[in-house]
Design a protein that fits this description.
This protein is 41% helix and 15% strand. The chain is of the alpha/beta class. The protein folds into 2 domains: 140 residues, Aspartate Aminotransferase, domain 1, CATH 3.90.1150; 239 residues, Type I PLP-dependent aspartate aminotransferase-like (Major domain) (Aspartate Aminotransferase, domain 2). The chain has a 7-stranded mixed sheet with strand order 4-10-9-8-7-5-6, sandwiched between helices. Strands 1-2-3-12 form a 4-stranded mixed sheet. Strands 11-14-13 form a 3-stranded antiparallel sheet, with helices on one face. The structure holds pyridoxal-5'-phosphate (PLP). Pyridoxal-5'-phosphate (PLP) binds next to helix 5.
Length: 425
């Protein structure tokens, strides 16, 4: 027998193992001050590239005013209860109708959280006889939704359409045996690499195979497409994407999410998505704030235009300086470098402490050993100056990385926890 707690104390997990050295610096850092491109970290101003505030709306004065007025009018608890029981309102329905129209669908359903919401939608959409075919790099919330499925699920190699077709063939054979249907799940934009899901190619497979398609467009909504309606608008295949999911936590700078599609199916979801039936509805203050954001996005493309000005300035600047930014075709800007954990931490610290730039870094075990990915998120809130300072910093830091200046035998102890515990170990 094992005591569960003893096991967890011994093994804190793949990321948790770094807690003692990393907590508060590399993980769980505290950014302070007004949300935007300049915030404070450990008391010093940094240029921040790690907020998915694509359109810069989160701290826009009109949005802040609308949020504050809505919170004053309704409080944060209103309405009480789940939508189905006592938590439905005209404003929730108005938001659903407007979101549906914006993404060119018949209807939509608001979800109180994106992660649990889409997990639970997947759970509701498939029965034990159905088969799920999904992209190998799908977001954790999609994977968790697929884990809830007790029938078959087949993974295809990330954005590999030939493999997607192969898995569809397997799924079709299996569905003929079980009598079920097929749900394909992909993303509009992959949040780590910035590459768009190949929606056009996947929807083209509908000519050969019978399936329904669900996309998670968390990073595309607001940022892609002529009107900002997302990756499927950009790729010209909205009519073939059966269900469109996105969250309010990125371009909309708030909380909550929605799923849009045919009216009959959205009604089915309203009555069958467990994470909504058995959970409190989205607060009215959030719903009213969302209506304001949507109206602003529809009134002008200025936010999206500013975003893309900054995306192009940053991505072109990096490419001109010889950086590998992969195949991104969205605002998400990865910078691929070679090095191990000590080099990665040395470079992050140099960039953060000496150049005052705060961005996320991804290393082993999230990606293979020997690779470092810096991930920059340009937004409409950044200025040309922010970008130019950052480009110069990356240029200098890359020279140091290449010359071995960041080489170290171990990673430094930057943790608030670690600092507090010095001398103990
Ligand atoms: C691709 C993707 N899907 C879903 C989610 C979860 O959404 P939420 O934060 O609204 O729970 C995220 C992260 O926010 C995401 O990046």
């Amino acid at each position: 027998m094992t005591d569960l707690f003893a096991r967890m104390e011994k093994d804190q997990g793949p990321l948790g193992q770094h807690l003692k050295r990393a907590h508060g610096y590399f993980s769980f850092p505290k950014l302070e001050g007004e949300l935007g491109s300049r915030m404070k970290f450990r008391g010093k101003e940094k240029i921040v590239w790690s907020l998915n505030n694509y359109l810069g709306l989160v701290n826009h004065p009109e949005v802040r005013k609308a949020d504050a007025e809505a919170a004053a009018k309704y409080g944060l608890g209103n309405p009480m209860g789940a939508r189905m029981m006592s938590g439905n309102t005209d404003l929730h329905e108005e938001l659903e109708a407007k979101l549906a129209k914006f993404v060119s669908r018949e209807d939509s359903m608001v979800l109180n959280f994106g992660y649990q919401g889409v997990m639970s939608c997947i759970d509701a959409l498939v029965s034990r006889h159905d088969i799920i075919v999904y992209d190998g790099e799908a977001h954790a919330c999609l994977i968790d939704g697929i884990r809830l499925h007790i029938g078959y699920s087949y993974k295809y190699k990330h954005n590999d359409i030939a493999d997607c077709e192969k898995q569809l063939q397997r799924a079709t054979k299996m569905a003929e045996k079980t009598g079920g249907g097929i749900l394909v799940i992909t993303e509009g934009v992959y949040g780590m690499s910035g590459t768009q899901g190949k929606l056009k190619e996947i929807t083209a497979l509908k000519k050969k195979y019978a399936f329904r398609l669900l996309i998670d467009d968390a990073h595309g909504f607001g940022a892609l497409g002529a009107t900002g309606a997302g990756a499927d608008e950009e790729q010209g295949c909205q009519a073939e994407v059966d269900l469109y999911f996105s969250t309010f936590v990125k371009s909309m700078g708030s909380i909550g999410a929605f799923i849009a599609g045919p009216k009959s199916i959205i009604n089915f979801l309203r009555y069958n998505v467990r994470s909504q039936i058995f959970a409190k509805s989205l607060p009215l203050a959030v719903v009213e704030g969302m209506l304001k954001r949507l109206a602003m996005m529809q009134a002008t493309t200025a936010f999206k235009d500013k975003l893309w000005h900054n995306v192009n300035r940053l991505q072109n600047g990096l490419k001109e300086r010889g950086f590998d930014i992969g195949d991104t075709n969205s605002p998400v800007t990865p910078v691929y470098l070679k090095g191990d954990l000590p080099e990665a931490t040395g470079m992050v610290m140099d960039i953060r402490e000496n150049y005052n730039i705060f961005c996320s870094v991804v290393v082993f075990p999230v990606i293979p050993k020997g690779q470092i990915i810096f991930r920059l998120i340009p937004t409409a809130a950044h200025s040309d100056e922010d970008t130019d300072i950052t480009l110069r910093a990356f240029e200098e830091a890359k020279k140091k990385l290449d010359s071995g200046a960041y080489h170290a035998d171990d990673i430094p102890d930057m943790s608030e926890v670690g600092l507090g515990q010095k001398g103990e170990s």
